[in-house]
UniProtKB/TrEMBL annotation:
Coiled coil: none annotated. Residues 13-240 form the Solute-binding protein family 3/N-terminal domain. This is Amino acid ABC transporter substrate-binding protein. Keywords: Signal. It comes from Roseivivax isoporae LMG 25204. PANTHER family: ARGININE-BINDING EXTRACELLULAR PROTEIN ARTP (PTHR35936:SF17), MEMBRANE-BOUND LYTIC MUREIN TRANSGLYCOSYLASE F (PTHR35936). InterPro entries: Quinoprotein_dehydrogenase (IPR022448), Solute-binding_3/MltF_N (IPR001638). The keyword Protein biosynthesis does not apply. It comes from the Bacteria. SUPFAM superfamilies: Periplasmic binding protein-like II.
Amino acid sequence: MSAQTSDLVSQNAFRVCADPANYPMSDQDGSGFENRIAELFAEALDRPLTYEWYPMATGFIRNTLAANKCDVVIGFAQGHELVQNTNHYFTSTYVLIVPEDGPLADVTTLSDPALQGLRIGVVAGSPPATHMARAGLIGKAKAYPLFVDRRYEDPAPDMLDDLEAGEIDAAVLWGPLGGPLVKSDHPGYKVVPLLNEQGAPRLFYRITMGVRLGEDVWKRELNSQIRRNQDAINTILADAGVPLVTDMGTEVLEVGQ
């Protein structure tokens, strides 16, 4: 395999490009679910795991993957033009987070009349904000910033802290952020995958690994590892609290224990 793989891909280490402060996905202390997936792949490839840490903001790919300081980004949305995507290894969706024993516990869509007049937290410019506007919920919504350096600002935990404090009535977050944060830090709250929203934009996304453009042999190797290790990947994600959905975002994917 060594002779076939692009010269830029290290044969001596599984070199991962990652954000040092992007918990619950990646964290410099190794606690994120992407860290656990990276450990799984490093073991499967029989290479030591190394990281190139850089905040997931403007310049991330330019300063990590494109600069040949690492060889793979563990989590990247399908179709991103800055990288070549592997096959996707999970699909997730935006979620509504509400008190599990409160009056909103049965709400499953943003168009539910029960949400009218309430203050809902949402990340400004994110896809569900469009659905909230269509449902007449933006006027009272509390917006949180989309592009931040999470070493200094942390919108998702801030939103859930505001929900717990009663400053907002419900929260809308990307599932792989909201699900694990609720599981680890906010017991008593319910994570509802938003599977039934009508119209654009879609709220589910397939997540791949990102590699350099043109490194097809490396991509095929990672695709092979994804296929072989899919059950273990699903277990890592489910254990973390990531809501998994089917490829077309139509129903929740149950992971066998």
